[in-house]
Write the structure tokens for this entry.
Amino acid sequence: MSYAKTFLIALSSIWAIPFAAAGWAVADTELAPPVRLEDSEGVIDTGPAWGHSSPAIEDLDGDGLADLVLGDYGGKFRVYKNVGSKSEPAFEKQDQLQASDAPAEVRIYCCIGGQPRFVDFDNDGVRDFISNSYDPGHCYYFRGLGDGKFEKPVEIVDKNDVPVRSSPEQKQNFQSFGSFYMPVDWDDDGDSDLLIGCFSGDLKLRINEGDAENYSFAGENVVVNAGDEPLKVSAHCCPVVADWDGDGLWDLVVGSGDGSVNWYRNGGNKGEPRFEKGIELVAKHDGSGYNLLRWNVNELPPGIRSQVEVNDFNNDGKPDLLVGDFSTAYAPRPDLTQEEKDEFTTTIEEAANRTSGYVEKMNKLREDFSKRYPGDEVYSDEATEAWQTEYQALRESPEAKELEATDAKFVDKVRPFLAETHGDGNESHDLAIPHGFVWVYLRK
Amino acid sequence: MWKCVLLCGVVVTIVGCDAKIETSVQPSQPAKSTVKPIEQRANGTQVSVTLRLSEAVVRPGDKFEVAVEMKIAPMWEIHPLAALPAETATKLNLITPEGIRAESEWIEPKTARSMGASGQPVHMGKAVFKRSLAVDSMAVGEHEIICKVGYQVCNEQQCLKPETLTLSVPLMVRE
């Protein structure tokens, strides 16, 4: 089923539509089972770019229909134009979003997708967008020129000319890698402050001490609490703001590395937000997210590393949830006999449940090194020399040989059952196909 | 850029690494001996790279070996030569003087399984990449073997920025 054909799409993003003032009960936040977004070619899948779909809904061309802008692991942003109508929306894949005369791009080579967030950042009446990056993990501002055009990105810096980032004073140059940014007028003074979702799972705030036309960000972050404790998800904290319960105050909806999505209700006041403990909207993915087995790609469940957007997708006055994800899955041949299916399933399940003596020993070795060489001592010559010796001994152990042999047998046995593989190599890693879907969870 | 003139007359140049470089120097060796490893470690980073030749002095018709040894800090790993996306793969770009011919592709050590959830193939501990070279007729005197080494280091949680180093070692050609 395609939502593009089934549901209405709101005219504008969450920034343009104030939700119903009356609000609705918290108990009404249950979500319908998720459905993957499609375009005219089928299910939208950022798998070829190594997934990590990063959705944003925005009426890019001002035709009154909300389009989809989709970031991914490749660091660019694909436009899916809504070529349907308000009542019968349909997405059509377009070019990549442009910044000046080149594709808009942020640097990503690990773990997350480029997450666009649209907002009139300089209060000139034209929508802009900002995006995160993996490296250096800073925030990039693409000033809007209208008609879906944008200027080259500018790195957002604070009043001290230091990039706005999760760690203002870094001891390591990778401390801020993999951050997420969400604009919000936290203190209700008419300008955009920035929420910073950290790779570690924490959430921080950088206040804009300037004004709506000229930003001037504070030099320090403020920790955001949920209840009496700092808000924290498992990892890859991806926040979006939306009035989820319709009480007139914006709340936080936060994606996480484990695939879960949580809602943090704003129980404060306008200009003084205060968040309650999180309520789970989407459960975490059951497993690692890698090497899933389904007979049909349509049966795949939502994966890990949820990147979220909130939008009144079916135009019923209630905000719905969009979740981008990542997973890898085997692609078995469709013509397998029942006997072959049984054999394939058994092989995969046995591999998944196999306890590896090598992995156990490796985990012990790592634990031991973490204790023996705490902090940066792990980079000392002594630690490296000790690691060479002890790791090499592990590589030559019977457990390592057994793992290698088992892995080779597994690849030989499984490959004939597969219709396609990610790589041509002889490692189990080469078998499963990467995916990145956009899931729509409608409010019941 | 660091430029270190070693006791044996070897010039080692490293470009593209922000970290502090330490170089351990071996005493000069008699002609036709094996060149001792020239250790260079970027303190505070996760990988040290050594470019090494099997022979310091060669003659036309000789064959010798070049090796790139990568020592990887505990609990970190690097990607193999064929890893995808290509930006993450280890890259070895050998630049030889005219008259030196590569007789093989890079021979890569066996990979291990990543400590991350992906289980992708990686190198941990020490990885030595080797390549065979042959000496055709060429001018006598001192030449230089250069190797540009690119790699990305990861741990279980995250990957760091891909690094590029340029290493060079001298090669004496005699009649």
In short: Chain B has a mean pLDDT of 78. The CA atoms of residues 41 and 48 of chain B lie 5 Å apart. Chain B touches chain A at residues 18, 41, 43-46, 48, 71-75, 82, 84-85, 87-88, 111-115, 117-121, 124-126, 152, 154, 157-162 (CB under 8 Å).
